[in-house]
Amino acid sequence: MAQGTGARIVLFSGLGLFVALLGYLIAASLTRRAAPVFTPSPAGVPLGDGTGLDTVTVQAQDQNLWRYVDLDQGIISPPGDSTGWDLAIRRFHVRVASPPGDLGKWYHYGMLSHLLESADETYVVATGIGRTALVEILSYYCPGLEAGCLTLRYRLEPAAPPVP
User: Fold this and answer.
1) Containing H/E element for 3?
2) Three-state DSSP class for 17?
């Protein structure tokens, strides 16, 4: 192979990579950034309607402050109160009081939109009084497409009858 041919291959490969990168940047800039947004639920106020099915939005934008949710009572604890919680949320991190202790990666990252999108999974969470909650994460955004408002829908299963 001639020396000039090798240089041309490298040059055209670099040009192809540059055009591909340019195409990605143009596509990313033209992609409409859209995600479901929810207004944060008030802390300290029971949110449930008694049916065992509810949706709650936790304002967890502070990267240093965990916010706690009691699913049995349907209450987001006021900032700094960590008593009687089933879920702890900080930005995109979600911990559960029962093992395994962490929901893991509940989201997909949109390469073009640069938004976190729900993985559409249902998680089984044991509550503090022994009930089971089925939890789905719906969104990670507050109004204005601000990150850090984790919205989840959960359904409490009826408590199992005591074993005689």
Assistant:
1) helix 3-30
2) helix
Residues 75 and 144 in one domain: yes
State whether residue 113 is helix, strand or coil.
coil
Q: Is the pTM of this model over 0.85?
A: no
Cβ proximity of 70 and 87 under 8 Å: no
| Nearest alpha carbon to residue 39 among 153, 150, 155 | 150
For residues 25 and 57, state if they share a domain: no
Over residues 135-145, the pLDDT tens digits come to: 999 999 999 99
3-state secondary structure of 16: helix
Same domain, 5 and 82: no
* C-alpha–C-alpha distance, residues 104 and 86, integer Å: 15
**Residue 42 carries which DSSP code?**
P
